[in-house]
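Lab meeting, item 3. Inverse folding demo.
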């Protein structure tokens, strides 16, 4: 049987959707085959930190590829991997000293979970294996990472295939699971970790994992000050490792190297990050405390784990060049400053009654949409409000990252914004203009329906 030569054979995420063909990109813009330009207002899915088409990165890529692109991590190390690990450790909170490289975020999350488990066994606590996570969270789509994720809509189809893991309440002030207002909050959502540990049995709990700022599931949900400090205390009290999932927030996105730095808390492991190589190559990392590494080194001597593209020299060289670029252009500080400007400008959108909440940290911001601003009632998910507004902005040349399920796992609509850290104030103004028009149009259509 012969096929038409031009027939598209790609298995797309939404097979009925017509995707424009991206052909080139530069700075904060992506261009399609028809010559249309799109502002990359979400860095894809919070990936692109330094902007597209940066010459220094292409040079680093070429240079490394000419020397050696691949050597398997079970057979060789490389200067590129060693150099990158040193640079990452310099950026991390004290105590985090060893870097394990991966090629996907879900893979990195599962690596952290396995590392925690093997560490517990090798230090003589073989009964510790459970990993507690939170509702309204996202840790990835592979089955282990999905089990930890607190997003009912993404989980329910695959539930029979997933291990059961405990979840606690999210630190979601706009929809406080304990019905509190900021002035009578006692950070009950952090105390919920202690409750869960006690119910599960502290002797069985290996680790707690959380995103410092929730990304895909709820749209830039920032915990209140004191939350992560309390979480750290509870983890210490019950001998539970604290893993922070900085796959979206790491490497400068929130205006600090890592989002957890905002609260001065040192986790036991950091999982990061899409921004590590800014989309130029798929590379992620797990950074662990020296003790975790040393316990395995001095115990069995082998971390029973590994992936073919771990420690890939080409990806490591690219990420190294991205870190240099971030430093040379002071992009972490810039994320903090421009992030403040973005939030301030986004407040203009409060003029739309369907805008319930605007929040964020650094250049990671969320807009949550509600049917009723007073009661905070979400829209019927069948309306697909996030897709409608995100789709309208896309047509107008602004890429956002629409998401849903934050309110109760199914309901709740938001747009996540995370432009490259190089964005200017004028470009932010343009983003807000497009959002304003898109929200106005979709709100009017909903009213008219
Ligand atoms: C916080 C967090 N963890 C893990 C992942 C999974 O990363 P990947 O899509 O590379 O598997 C994501 C992806 O959005 C994420 O936001």
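The presenter then showed the designed sequence:
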């Amino acid at each position: 049987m012969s096929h038409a030569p031009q027939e598209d054979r790609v298995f797309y995420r939404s097979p009925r959707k017509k995707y424009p063909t991206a052909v080139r990109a530069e700075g904060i813009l992506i261009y399609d085959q028809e010559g249309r330009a799109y502002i990359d207002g979400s860095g894809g899915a919070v990936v692109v930190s330094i902007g597209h088409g940066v010459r220094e990165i292409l040079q680093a890529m070429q240079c490394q590829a000419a020397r050696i692109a691949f050597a398997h991590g079970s057979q060789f190390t490389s200067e590129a991997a060693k150099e990158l690990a040193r640079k990452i450790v310099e950026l991390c909170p004290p105590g985090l000293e060893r870097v394990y490289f991966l090629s996907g975020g879900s893979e990195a999350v599962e690596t952290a979970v396995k590392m925690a488990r093997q560490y517990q066994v090798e230090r003589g606590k073989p009964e510790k294996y459970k990993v507690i996570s939170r509702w309204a969270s996202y840790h990835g789509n592979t089955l282990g990472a999905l089990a930890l994720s607190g997003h009912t809509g993404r989980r329910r189809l695959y539930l029979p295939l997933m291990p059961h893991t405990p979840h606690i309440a999210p630190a979601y002030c706009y929809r406080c699971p304990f019905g509190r207002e900021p002035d009578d909050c006692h950070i009950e959502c952090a105390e919920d970790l202690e409750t869960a540990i006690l119910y599960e049995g502290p002797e069985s709990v290996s680790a707690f994992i959380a995103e410092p700022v929730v990304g895909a599931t709820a749209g830039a949900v920032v915990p209140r000050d004191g939350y992560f400090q309390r979480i750290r205390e509870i983890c210490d009290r019950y001998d539970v490792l604290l893993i922070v999932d900085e796959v979206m927030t790491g490497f400068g996105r929130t205006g600090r190297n890592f989002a957890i730095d905002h609260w001065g808390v040192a986790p036991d492991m950091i999982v990061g990050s899409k921004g590590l190589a800014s989309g130029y190559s798929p590379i992620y990392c797990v950074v662990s405390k020296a003790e975790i590494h040393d316990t395995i080194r001095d115990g069995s001597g082998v971390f029973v784990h590994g992936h073919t593209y771990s420690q890939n020299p080409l990806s490591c060289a690219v990420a190294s060049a991205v870190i240099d670029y971030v430093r040379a252009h002071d992009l972490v500080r810039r994320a903090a400053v421009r992030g403040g400007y973005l939030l301030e400008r986004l407040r203009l959108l409060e003029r739309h009654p369907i805008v319930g909440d605007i929040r964020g940290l650094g250049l990671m911001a969320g807009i949550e949409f509600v049917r009723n601003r007073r009661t905070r009632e979400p829209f019927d998910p069948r309306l697909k409000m996030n897709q409608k507004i995100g789709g309208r902005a896309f047509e107008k040349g602004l890429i956002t990252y629409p998401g849903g399920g934050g309110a109760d796992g199914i309901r709740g609509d938001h747009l996540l914004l995370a432009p490259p850290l190089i964005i200017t104030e004028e470009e932010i103004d343009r983003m807000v203009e497009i959002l304003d028009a898109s929200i106005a149009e979709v709100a009017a259509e909903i009213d008219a329906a």
